[in-house]
Every structure is written in structure tokens, then in C-alpha cells.
Amino acid sequence: MPIVGSIVKGFLDLRGQLVSDKNPVDSQKEVLQMLLEKAKNTAFGMHYNFTEILESSELEKTFSERIPYFDYDKMDAEWWSKIHEGSNDVSWPGNPDYFALSSGTTGKTSKRIPVTNQMIKAIQEAGLEQVYALSNFDLPADFFEKDIMMLGSSTALDNVDEHMEGEISGISASKIPAWFRGYYKPGEEISEIDDWDERIDRIVEKATEWDIGALSGIPSWMELMLKQVIERHNLKNIHDLWPNLQVYTSGGVAFSPYKRSFNALLGKPITVIDTYLASEGFIAFQARPETNAMQLVTNGGIYFEFVPFKPEYIDQNGALVKDAPSVPLSEVKLHQDYVLIISTVSGAWRYIIGDTIEFTDVERAEIKITGRTKFFLNVVGSQLSVNKMDDAVNHLEDQFSIKIPEYTICAKKIEGEFYHCWYLGTDGSAAEGEIVDCLDSYLKSANKNYKVARSKALKGVKATLVPISIFHDWSAYNKNKGGQVKMERVMDEGKFQEWEHFAQKKIS
């Protein structure tokens, strides 16, 4: 009998009965008040007169009116760069001990996003809330005695100018509490290996020694690791080695494009739980099994605002126009795409994180990620968001019985006419002409703007099928293999030209 597991499960069940949920709207008002109070004497707080904002009877409204939007480049150029020059109390009291390196999607230049001790504490508390929410999933007691594989970036951080730098998954894993270390795999020694391939080799080598009950990490890199374990140990599926694997905590990107290829690696169904941990903080997690939506962490270190994702509020580079209106959590509506704006205990203010979301349950503050602002394909009025592209790729998988976990697309001008050019990552086979017809037909039926564009400026669709490994090689080429890296779903023509040259060279 799993005694320890029974105790843990009993505690989680009891806590779920005793602790009442706080109203998300009230929590958000308290978080904004706290953020402004804490930062009012920083350079940023004094510049924008937080003290006066705090006196307002309409705090959320006044805050949104007084503070402009900041993307990373603007926030870094005007404020965070001063931290690197030696200034204290810039946009948050003191100086951050960590900087999260993030290129978001594959790219050669990393962003350096401050991570304060308050943010690390907020991430840990949100992680604990997610653990508490496991009581909703009716997992057996023995699950709570199994190992947990966390596949992220290296926990060996770089010491730069009196602070540490690394990806947020590496920073978080380097700060795991002592009680968790016995469950944590691949363990501290392997997790510190910087080279992705070397780290995976060590994981594959040690895999037979572990009894994994849960996996956590970005789907594309998790799949790659599982495939290597299966191949090295001559398994039919991963459950041949880890029969007690019951949970996969996905994060970073939507899981739906990977569902078919991921499930092909399993011997039986498992529970998939979505999470939303970004370099800027722990934003949301799936709290109940009845939905795959995620609940915003409204009582932590992040205040959220939402800008309706409409073409008139987005410029041609995928950035928000400066007068785009925002709404607080109390005013959001169901099934409306929003650009997510955050203010945090790491000193990000009205920060455009780059993701778009929609609410599936307003009362519970549950959301799903619908795409990226810069992955909104609207060069010729087609208005395709990532979730529409994901749906189209899922449709292809169903129609042709193939797995397509990776893809990228560009609106490319060919002989004076615009085409949507798709590269689809699959190890299956299908006629590219039939793929084109199916894609085009599906998107016409699913998106009226696309249908109009196809009758006017969008001349046609092209599709190229390439092995999935080419997408992984592209990440390695961009020095971003593993960790938090996500593939660009939409590229501009310049980047796409580089991608096509790379892909065609690999094929030949």
C-alpha cells in the first residue's frame, strides 16, 4: 500500500475541501495595489507618479491611462538597460538576482528579462497551487510516490555582472525546494549539463533506473527525448519502461498540434495538464479535468490587462498601436481574442508579452492561448491566427492519417502575387497537391476573411512536406535547442528565405 502517497493525496483532498477560492477580480485589484505601493519609490514609479495613481478612486482605469504600453525593446531601452549600467531601484526595488534569457521563438538574440526573488517566490507559490489542484484529477495514491521528469533548460546559470542568467525553466529548477529533490529527475547533476544533446544522452542512459509518474516540459523537446529513450532501449512505447507514467504537464505552446504524435509514443492514455510559464512569470495552469483551459494566477505577482485582438489595434509588425484600449479582468468577455498585458513583481509594467488568449470561463478566469501577436498572418487581409492554423493542421492529420507536430508559414510574393507558403513537418507521406487543396478548402470554410482574401490578393497556397528533424535542426542552427524554445509559426519573407535555404539544403 502506498502509505506516503495516501497521506499526500489525503492532504490534497482535505485542503481542497477546506480552502475556498478567492474572487479573481478582487485578487487582481489587490495585486495592482501591492505592485504600485512596492514600486512607488523606484525610478519608474516616480517618473509615472505612482503615488498619485494610488490616490485614485478608479485605480485600474487611472493606471491604464497614465502608463503606456511597453514591449521588451521599449522596456529594455528606457529602463532595464539602466540595471546593467549599475543603477538600483529602476522599475522594482533593489536589483534582480537573475535575468531570464528568452528568444521566445527561435532566434539568435536573447532577451534579458529581470527575475526578482519576489517573482521566484510567486512562481513557487503558483506551482504549489497547481500541485494542490491535482486533487481535482482523481489520481491514485501511488502517483504521489513516483518520480517527476522536468525537461527544461540547463540549471547551470551564468554569473554576469553580479547576477545569474539562464532560461526561466533553468532558474526555476535551480531553486526547487529541498523536499522535492527526491522526486526530481533527471536530478541536479544531469540538469546542469549545458549541451542539450549531451544532457539527453545522459537521461537516456539513466532512464531505466527511474520510475517516472509525471513528465513536464515543452512538447516538441519532450517528444524528442521520449523517442530517443524508446529507440535506445528497444521499446514499443514509453510505458514499456515507465508503466506508472500517468501525467504530462505541457507548457510553453498549445499542446493540440503535438497530440497525435505524442500519443503515438504511449502505451496507454495519460492525463495531460496544460501550464503557462513564461520568462516573465507563471501565468496560468489547468486546475480541473473538465476542461483543457487554464486558470489565470490572479493572486500572485502579476496584474493582467487585456486588449481586444482586432486588426485596427495591431500594426503591420504585429505590435500594438499606442492608443489600443485595454480592459481589466472585470470587463472581459467570452470567446474574444485578447492581447495579454502584464505588470509584475519583476518590474515589468503594462508589458506586451506577445501572446493572445481567449476566455473560456470568465467567472473562473480560465483562458486558452490562441496565438502570438507576431504570428497573426494578415499581409493580404487573411487574418489567420495561430489557433486557426493549428486547427487546419489538425484537420490535415485527420484527413491524411499523418502526424504534423511542426509547421511554419509565410505570406510570400512570387512573381508579383502573394501565396501562403507552408512547410509541414511530418515523417508520414501525402501528395502535396492534395495537402494544398485540403488546407485551402478548410481555411475557406473556417475563416471568412481568408475566403475573401483568396478571392482577391491571396493568389494561392503552396505546401512542402519535410522531415520533423529539420525543425529540430533549425533550432540547433539558431543555437536554441531544447529549453523554452518554440518554433516560429509565421515568418517574414527575410527569415523565410533563410529557412527555405536551410530546409532545402538539409533535404538535398
Automatic annotation (TrEMBL):
Pfam families: GH3 (PF03321), GH3_C (PF23572), GH3_M (PF23571). It comes from the Bacteria. Residues 298-362 form the GH3 middle domain. Residues 390-493 form the GH3 C-terminal domain. This is GH3 auxin-responsive promoter family protein. It comes from Arenibacter antarcticus.
